[in-house]
Each structure stands twice: as C-alpha cells, then as structure tokens.
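Sample 3 of the quickstart, ligand pyridoxal-5'-phosphate:
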Amino acid sequence: MRYISTRGQAPALNFEDVLLAGLATDGGLYVPENLPRFTQEEIASWAGLPYHELAFRVMRPFVTGSIPDADFKKILEETYGVFSHNAVAPLRQLNGNEWVLELFHGPTLAFKDFALQLLGRLLDYVLEKRGERVVIVGATSGDTGSAAIEGCKHCENVDIFILHPHNRVSEVQRRQMTTIFGENIHNIAIEGNFDDCQEMVKASFADQSFLKGTRLVAVNSINWARIMAQIVYYFYAALQLGGPARSVSFSVPTGNFGDIFAGYLARNMGLPINQLIVATNRNDILHRFMSGNQYVKETLHATLSPSMDIMVSSNFERLLFDLHGRNGAAIAGLMDTFKQGGGFSVEQERWTEARKLFDSLAVDDAQTCETIAEVFEQTGELLDPHTAIGVKAARECRRSLDIPMVILGTAHPVKFPDAVEKAGVGKALELPAHLSDLFERDERCTVLPNDLKAVQAFVSQHGNRGKPL
Ligand SMILES: *Cc1c(COP(=O)(O)O)cnc(C)c1O
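Result:
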C-alpha cells in the first residue's frame, strides 16, 4: 500500500515510512493512495470474531508489504490483550436502538488507547528491523499524553517526551502520565499554556537539528496509523448490530476530526453506514462547516469537555481532499487562504455531497450536564462529558429511528469529575482496579520554563534512554 499527501507535492511513501513521518514535506497529511474495499459477503463472514482478529482483517491491506501477516497478528493480539474488558469495545444499550460503544477500557480510560497501544508496538517492531531509534516529542492537554506514554513505555527503540502545561491539567490526567516510570519516559511541565507546548512541538518538527540526526515521530492524529486503528471499531460495532445486512449510524464526539474520519473511511471500505454525526462542544468550527459551509477560525473556549477544545481540526483536510476529487493543488490553495486568516467555503455541490453523510450539532456545557443527568436518570449509566455530547447530538440529529444509532463512548467518567459533579449526579466516581492507587503513587516530572531552547536542550540531553543523543 502506498500513501500520498493531501497537497500533492510530497513523495508517496510505504506504510513503514508513513508510520515514521509527521506532516508530509509539502505540509499535507498522508492518506492511502487507494482505499481497500471489502464485499458484503466478506464483511458478513467476520461476524463473531474476537476484536484482534477483526482488526487483522480490516487493517491488513494497509500494512501489506511492510509487516508479514504472522507478525501483524501477534502485535494485534498483544495490543488488544491489555484492554480490561473481554469484549475490548463492548456495546451498551441506552434506549431502544440507541447504543454506546465503550471505548474506554484501555489502560488510560479513553479511546486514544486503541490507536496508541498499537502505534507504540508498530514503531518498536519497525525500528527494531531497521536498527534505528526515534524520539517522540508531543504536547498534551490531557488524554493524548497519557495514552502515548502507556503505548510507548515498553518500547526499546523510542524515547518519549510529553509536554503539558504546568498546573493546567487535571490531577487524574497528570498522574496518569507522571506515575509511569522508565528510562525512556520523560514528562515535562512547561510554565505556559497548551498552545505554548504545541508551538514548541511544531518548531521542533520544523528544525530538528537539536536531535543530531535522530528522527522525530508524531503521535497526534496527523499520524496515519492512529486513524487506521480507529477504523476497526466501526466494523466491530456494526457487525454486532446486524451489519452489513443492515446499516448503522454513528454519533462521534469530535475535535480534530480524527475519530469520525475513521468512520468515513469504514464506510468507503464497504461498511453500510447511514449517517455520521459530528458532535462538538462550543468550539464548533466543524459544526459551522457542516451546518453553513463556513470553515472559519474563532477564539478558543475552555469547556467541560477539554479533549475537544480546538480552534482548527487538523484531520478535516483529509476529508476536504476527497471532496475535491483528490486534487492536491486545490487543497494547498484552500489551506493557504485559511492560513492567511480568511477561512473558506467550498463549492455548493461539494458541500451537498458531504451533507449526504454528515450531520452535526454543537453542544454547550449546560446541555452537556443536562444530558449526563438525563441519561443517568433514565438508565443508570454515567457518561463522561464528551460521550454526553455525542448522545445529545445523536438525539437531535437522528434521521431514522429504525436504524441503530451508536454513540462512541470516548472516555470513562472518572477522568472528568468536574462535569459529573456539575451535572448533579449523586454517584461516587471510582477508579478502576488497575488505577485504584493512582493518588498514592510517586510522580516523576521536570518543570521547564516556556523556552524552546531549554526544552530542546533537555531532549538532546536525555533522548537516548535517559542519556545524551
Ligand atoms: C481526543 C478525544 C476526543 C476527540 O477526538 P478527535 O479524534 O480529535 O476528534 C474526544 N473525546 C475524548 C475523550 C478524547 O480524548
């Protein structure tokens, strides 16, 4: 399988190279040159497979030529073996034909484990074969950092540096990062905000001389392997609800358009999906596009669903590429306009095409809390604020009551106690068994000033299993 850039000017890569790449050299994002397509009979024959076996069948075409089948199977069995629920991604019924797909039974209790547990293992496998080492430098406001550290903690060939804003992530989220020890794991608290952290990561990708030749790898959802891993659970859910003989709809709490883009790909690979609902919080650039064909940046708002607090949606470029007939020059033009502060609309027929599949809703904090309270009262299920936004959007935007509606449950409520408390639900939140002593564990973290040179010096001093590069 070959991968091409959404801006048309970068060289095509194979899976191994795309795994190790960040942005393409032309500033675009990598996508498969040709998407695999499965027949209905083929998909139907996968009913009842355990998660890791289904994962093998769905992802195999993407890694062909880079990873032999037997090795890939083994990696997948290990990856999904660490999840605490036997079903890996269990479906829970809320109402007639309304389901939550629980994606929070991984080590860090959020859906990012599905991709990052796999990414860490794939990196190590590929690097071992090539006799190389890499460094990861990533920024986090919470979920990505802990999932990336958990995913890479056993990697022999990866050193990981995660930057978080000092004193600005919740205690649970901080402890999920700082209580994991290893000579290749480095938590850095920056005396600044999340944007400062992200800027430093971007600047480090732009000029990698401080790494003395070691390669820098991206762990955010610009990395293709993350999107790839998320395609699987759309098939898994649909197969349990009568697919592919029957079509299914999904509502996806989204920020960077990564998770929902995976759903779009599942459909293009042959899975009958009737409707995809983009569920955002008050940071609603995607909702403004889907409802009014305006893709325009606005100021950032802090919300009760912080993992979706974004101003721009990086993966949206991958959808735009398809909507424009995969014309890289057109995408480069749109992105230039956007960068100059213009924002843009797309031609009417392209927007209409998108709206055949996508609907959207923006849900504010008050509605989020109302939904948590309402669902708890109706069903006894306690939702995290991100999932609650998905439920609200599903109920408002649903096209047909006859088609099963699956809401992606992106996090465990214990990660977001503020929202649960504000919702007034009188249920004590309990950490799952593997994290029950989280508040007693020792922490390890280095506080650094908001200064790029200081951070880069730290990375080059510690980037080789704690020793200098
Ligand atoms: C990252 C995250 C999201 C948003 O996912 P995208 O792929 O950026 O759309 C939603 N919910 C939770 C809990 C997350 O951690």
